[in-house]
Every structure is written in C-alpha cells, then in structure tokens.
Write a structure and sequence with these properties.
By secondary structure, this protein is mainly α. It is built from twelve helices and five strands. It has a three-stranded antiparallel β-sheet, with helices on one face. A two-stranded antiparallel ribbon has the order 3-4. It is flat, with a radius of gyration of 31 Å.
Length: 307
C-alpha cells in the first residue's frame, strides 16, 4: 500500500502540538494579566464626576476631617456619601456664584441628589464593613491611598480578592493605633520615630483598650496615668447610698451637717505601663492581640466576605 503521508508529517505533527501548548499558555497568561489590569480593576482611573471635587483642597488645604463628610464610617458598614446639605453648610457663604458649583445649588433647590459616580465599588456578592476595619486599626490611607494628595479621587488599589487576602493573612503589617486612623501621613514606628502603647483598662469597644503616643511618656512632666474605677464601699450598718435629689443637710451633734447623696465611684490612678515599638510588625502584633483580631485562618475564610 502506498504511503499516504510524507515522513515530514511526523515532525509537523509534533511541532503543531508544541505550538498549541504555547498558544494555550500564552492565552492563559494574557487573560490573567488582563483581569489584573486597570482596564478591568479601574485602578488609577478618575471618573468624570458631576462636580470635580478635590479631596486635596478640602483635606490638605482646609483641614476637613474625613468624618465631616463620611459621617457613618465609624458606626456603619457604609462610609456614607455626604448629602447636599453638607456642601451647602459652607458654600452658602463662599463661592456662592461659582459656575463649578451650579449642580450643588440646583440639587439644594430641587431636592434631587447629586449623581456621584462611585469610585470604590465592590461586587454585590462581597460584604465589606467600614465600621469593623476602622475600629480595629485599619487607616483610611491603607485602602484608599493618600486621599489628601488627590485633586481628583481615584482608586489607589485593585480591591481584588488577592489584595484583600494579603492583608487578612498578615493584618499586623497594616494595623495602627486608632488615634492615627485619619492620619494620612502615618508611616508606622521606626527607630527614629518610635511609638509607645499601653492598655487603658477601659471596657467597651476594643479600640478603647489601648492608648498610644508618639512622645516618650517618661519625659513628660505630667506622666500619663491609667484610671481604674472601683465600686464604692460602705461601712457596716450604713447600708446602700441614698438616691434621689439633693437632700437637706443632716445635722450631727449640732455641727454644720453634711448633705447626703450618691457618692462618686472611687478612682485609682495607676502609672500606665507603656511599651516601646520601633517597627511596624512589632506594633502590629501587639495591636492584633489588644484589638482581639481573629487568626489569619479565620480572617481568610470564605464566609468572612462572601455571605
């Protein structure tokens, strides 16, 4: 029987298999890079807003705090978009005729909301709680970048699952004292700029359990103290303290008398035991324990974000 294919067909077949494998691998790499690219993540993009609001001008220039506009960031899962009333508080007095602010005046006159375009927009199946992150020591700049240096707001990070998991696997690298949450320039402790922290003994939100300072407490003329409240004790036979409005002085043996009322709880002043930190990881591990942050295995569980 005559040979149908030439001997070179074997080489061509092998070459075609190799080329097919290369094409499949190249396609996979291309798609992987594409889904990480700003074209998909919108990282670095500045959407056209109805008003070119400048965070740099308002935060760095005027010194407005984040909470003035984003009022629910510490007590809600949603940071909140400020209503027109927040803008009018100032712009009813200044820049009242600026054409740039015409949408603000129109919104105030008609009651229609300003149609802002959301910059940091997570998928609907992702649950993110601002309150938890802020009160557990994650600063605004950790996710949103240096907002105080942005003339126009843009998305600093990818906000992809990989980026979230990198923090959840090692939260200590991003934790800071809650007093520094809104400090955009926070860079963490170093040998040149250490941080001192101590427990306060307060009950309530975990963020109140720790007090941190960037100045050496031992050098202060009035050293900081941790206050401990104690329940008042009553001498035997006197019973519980009397309650109600102020009562008439109780005369004792013809003396001037003393007004009897609710005694104030006793306060015991104890020197705070401050620890010095010179690196972010040292401080982060300390705050992880003090803020009662869960283990990385729990933080990276699917049910944490996907509900």
């Amino acid at each position: 029987m005559a040979q149908v294919f030439d001997r070179s067909s074997n080489a061509l077949a092998r070459l075609s298999l190799v080329l097919t494998g290369i094409i499949v691998i190249a396609l996979g790499v291309t798609l992987n890079e594409l889904q990480r690219s700003p074209w998909v993540t919108r990282q670095g993009q500045r959407p056209d807003q109805p008003i070119p609001f400048s965070h740099k001008h308002h935060v760095e220039g005027l010194g407005l705090q984040c909470q003035y506009c984003h009022t629910s960031v510490e007590k809600s899962s949603y940071a909140g978009i400020p209503p027109t009333k927040t803008c009018i508080n100032c712009h009813s007095q200044i820049w009242t005729d600026a054409q740039l602010l015409e949408p603000v005046r129109q919104s105030w006159a008609t009651g229609a909301s300003i149609q802002w375009i959301r910059v940091h927009d997570l998928p609907d199946y992702v649950y993110f709680n601002h309150e938890v992150h802020v009160n557990k020591g994650i600063g605004c700049a950790s996710c949103h970048g240096r907002v105080d240096e942005m003339p126009l707001m843009y998305q600093q990070n990818t906000l992809q699952m990989e980026w979230c998991l990198n923090c959840h696997r090692n939260p200590a690298s991003n934790l800071r004292p809650t007093s520094e949450i809104y400090n955009m320039a926070w860079a963490g402790p170093s040998k040149e700029k250490p941080v001192w922290c101590a427990g306060t003994g307060k009950s309530g939100p975990t963020s109140q359990d720790v007090s941190c300072t960037t100045t050496d407490p031992s050098n202060n003329g009035n050293p900081e103290l941790a206050m401990m409240q104690l329940e008042p004790t009553h001498p035997a036979g006197l019973g519980a303290p009397q309650t109600g409005p102020n009562m008439q002085p109780h005369i004792v043996d013809g003396g001037e008398g003393k007004t009897v009322g609710n005694p104030l709880p006793l306060q015991l002043a104890l020197p705070a035991s401050y620890q010095k930190f010179t690196s972010q990881m040292e401080l982060g591990k300390y705050l992880t324990a003090q803020y009662h942050i869960r283990e990385p295995e729990q933080l990276s569980s699917c049910e944490t974000c996907h509900r």
